[in-house]
Design brief:
Length: 353
C-alpha cells in the first residue's frame, strides 16, 4: 500500500477499483493493468469476466500475453494452462501438478460499463459497495467516454476532484467557470463512504463551457466515493429557482436545459502512476449525440489541463525534501475524504481485520 508524505495511508484495499471499460474487453479477450502496484490480467470468457494475477507460476511470464482456450487461459511462454479460479490445470510434459500451482484470483464485476476489481480480502467483497455510476448503455443518458494516464499519484487526482475551486483558474480556457467556484464554497455532506458536494450558482449565463444569452440558476451535485469515484449531476433552471427551493436539490423535471451526468474514476496503478476514466453526456430529454460530442471535446481539453497541472505538482513534490501542504478553506472536502481513507486503511491494517 502506498503512502502520502508523512506516512499517511492514502488508498483503501477493501474497495472496488475500475480496471477498464467493459466494451473494450471482447470475448476471449485479454487486458493488462496494474492496480495498487499489482499486475492483473482481465479476461472475458463466454460465461464471465475474470481477474487473475498477471504472472505465470513457472517463470513469472505475463498471462496477458497468453491465449484463451474456451474457459481456460494458456501461458504462451511454456504452455501452463489455468482455469478461471487461477488454478493451473495442465503443465505440458508433466502429469503431476503441484497443489500450489495457482495464481491469485480477484473478485470482479461487470457493471455500469466498467470492470470493477476488488483489491482486498476476497471474503469481504460486497457488490453493494460498487459506486452507483451510470453505464453507457443506460437509455436515459447519451454518454461518451475516455481515459487518461497520469505520471502522478492517484491521491493528487482525487484531491483535485475534491476541490473545484481550481475550475476558476486551471480551466479558464476550457470551462470558463468564472470566479464563483473560487469565491464561494459548496455545501458538504459527509457520507458513509465518501463526501457529497452541492452547489447553486445563480444568475449566470449557463453552466461552465456552455454559456447562453439567457440568465439561469445552475445546480450541480456530486458524490466522491471510496476508492476515488466521482458521480455528478447538473442542470440549468429559471432565475429564482435556487431561492424557491431554499437552495436545496431541485426537481430535474423543471430544468430548462443542461441536465448532464458525468462519472469519473481514478485507479492507482503504481507509484506515481494512475489511470483516469471518465464519461459525460446529456439526459436524453436535454441533448443529443452532437451535444455529447461537444461535451467530450470540452472534457478532453479540460482534463488535459488537469493532467498538466497535477503532473507538474508531482514533480515539485518529488523534488521537495519534506513535502507538506497548507490547507485553505476549500480543502474541507479533501480533508474529510482523506480522513475517511486513513480511517478505513487503519482498520484494514489492524490485527483484528
Amino acid at each position: 500500500m502506498f503512502n502520502k508524505p508523512g506516512g499517511r495511508m492514502n488508498y483503501v484495499r477493501n474497495a472496488w477499483y475500475v480496471g477498464g471499460w467493459s466494451p473494450d474487453l471482447a470475448p476471449n479477450g485479454l487486458s493488462a493493468i496494474r492496480i495498487l502496484g499489482e499486475p492483473i490480467v482481465l479476461w472475458r470468457t463466454s460465461q464471465q469476466v475474470v481477474a487473475l494475477a498477471d504472472r505465470c507460476v513457472h517463470r513469472l511470464a505475463p498471462l496477458s500475453l497468453g491465449r484463451c482456450e474456451a474457459e481456460r487461459l494458456r501461458c504462451m511462454y511454456h504452455g501452463l494452462l489455468y482455469d478461471t479460479r487461477g488454478q493451473c490445470v495442465q503443465i505440458p510434459g508433466q502429469d503431476v501438478i503441484p497443489p500450489g500451482a495457482r495464481v491469485r484470483s480477484y473478485p470482479i464485476v461487470d457493471r455500469h460499463s466498467w470492470l470493477w476489481v476488488w483489491m482486498g480480502d476476497p471474503q469481504r467483497a460486497d457488490e453493494a459497495l460498487i459506486p452507483p455510476a451510470v453505464g453507457l448503455e443506460d437509455p436515459e443518458w447519451i454518454l461518451g467516454r475516455g481515459q487518461l494516464d497520469y505520471q502522478a499519484e492517484a491521491c493528487h487526482i482525487n484531491d483535485n476532484l475534491l476541490d473545484f475551486s481550481h475550475l476558476t483558474y486551471v480551466h479558464a480556457n476550457s470551462f470558463g467557470a468564472g470566479p464563483s467556484f473560487a469565491e464561494e464554497r459548496p455545501r458538504l455532506v459527509p457520507l458513509e463512504r465518501g463526501v457529497r458536494f452541492e452547489r447553486w450558482i445563480t444568475g449566470t449565463r449557463g453552466p461552465p463551457g456552455r454559456s447562453t444569452d439567457e440568465l439561469t440558476d445552475n445546480w450541480s451535485t456530486y458524490d466522491f466515493l471510496i476508492p476515488g469515484v466521482l458521480l455528478m449531476w447538473s442542470g440549468s433552471f429559471r432565475p429564482g429557482m435556487a431561492a424557491s427551493c431554499n437552495y436545496e436539490r431541485p426537481d430535474y423535471s423543471q430544468a430548462l436545459r443542461g441536465v448532464t451526468f458525468t462519472s469519473q474514476a481514478v485507479t492507482p496503478m503504481a507509484e506515481r502512476s494512475a489511470r483516469y476514466f471518465f464519461s459525460w453526456g446529456p439526459h436524453r430529454h436535454h441533448g443529443d449525440e452532437a451535444l455529447r460530442d461537444f461535451l467530450m471535446k470540452l472534457a478532453a481539453q479540460a482534463f488535459g489541463e488537469d493532467k498538466i497541472m497535477i503532473e507538474a505538482q508531482q514533480r515539485v513534490i518529488d523534488q521537495t525534501a519534506v513535502p507538506s501542504v497548507m490547507p485553505t478553506g476549500h480543502d474541507r472536502g479533501v480533508m474529510l475524504f482523506n480522513q475517511l481513507v486513513a480511517r478505513l486503511a487503519r482498520a484494514e491494517a489492524a490485527p483484528s481485520a
